[in-house]
TrEMBL record:
Top-level enzyme category: ligase
Protein name: Tryptophan--tRNA ligase
Entry keyword annotation includes Aminoacyl-tRNA synthetase: yes
Species, as recorded: Amycolatopsis deserti
Subcellular location: Cytoplasm
Keyword check for Protein biosynthesis: yes
PROSITE patterns per the UniProt record, alphabetical: AA_TRNA_LIGASE_I
GO molecular function, one term: ligase activity
Family of the protein in this entry: Belongs to the class-I aminoacyl-tRNA synthetase family.
Amino acid sequence: RPRVLSGIQPTADSFHLGNYLGALRQWVRMQDTHETFYMVVDLHAITVEQDPKVLRQRTRVSAAQLLALGVDPERSALFVQSQVPEHAQLSWVLECLTGFGEASRMTQFKDKAAKQGTDHASVGLFTYPVLMAADILIYQADAVPVGEDQRQHLELTRNLAQRFNQRFGKTFTVPEPHIVQGTAKIYDLQDPAVKMSKSASSPNGIIELLEDPKRSAKKIRSAVTDTGREVKFDRENKAGVSNLLSIYSALTDRTIPDLEAAYEGKGYGDLKKDLAEVLVDWVTPIQERVQSYLDDVAELDKILARGAEKARAVSARTLERVFDRVGFLPPA
Ligand code: TYM
């Protein structure tokens, strides 16, 4: 079976609908066809200032959400990044192969550093994409399910794999991004020109999986749309309606043309009302499952420990080979 690796940051109280539709939905599906490694990337989370108590809580809530959404710990290695030390160890080696200019060109770093001011942005934020490359390469992953915003990081990962292989002999699988058109970029409900993101300007623009479903329904009903009437997919002229159609289509597995036909002669209000209902019906049982995982933290931690063990069986082997290739002495 081809291998898959992906990760998500525990940097908010809840995942949002963009995370789910852009990435996590694929994580769950790929369990049927791939050998899967999924993790909560707490090492990445400390690249920005954080509170230790909050981080620990969010890491567990993140894991609980992944389980509730359908990541199956029997079929997948589900783990927390910091519990697998090989990620950080490989990252150092890859940092030494990454050009300063190359890392400086990462747009997500540039955006975040610009927001914080370069004096405040950490070196960890700068090397973040290299750690991400290590995450992927240490499992010899063939495919990486992510949203569109991670494409450049995947490109860097491929370059680093190829560079290492060229210099030291074939060691790493060169991974392919798995980016599903249609849901690769879910947009902000209040500003459909920008992606749905935790750092949104208005909380009404993002649907959080763990917020009160009534609140989510309200956000859908008050999503920004154009002044027209016709329910048609048209990214250029009807960005808001198109975004709602993408979400609707993904949550129901109905095609966009099918939805357009169903709403012929009806208005945006009908579309929003129905989508709000679909969303509430989908998210309510998920919230219940999240809560039941959080009710037994000891069991949750055990699941994660088992996941880390599975992950280390692979990551330790790759790291040993890498250390040998670069000329380190055998383990003492
Ligand atoms: P993160 O935690 O920001 O987001 C998790 C996943 O959600 C996707 N995503 C979206 N997809 C569609 N529309 C949106 N509006 C949207 N917002 C977020 C992201 O593309 C991502 O797939 N650097 C990564 C975490 C990471 C990782 C890895 C991923 C660390 N190591 C190794 C893959 C492999 C990140 O910050 O994702």
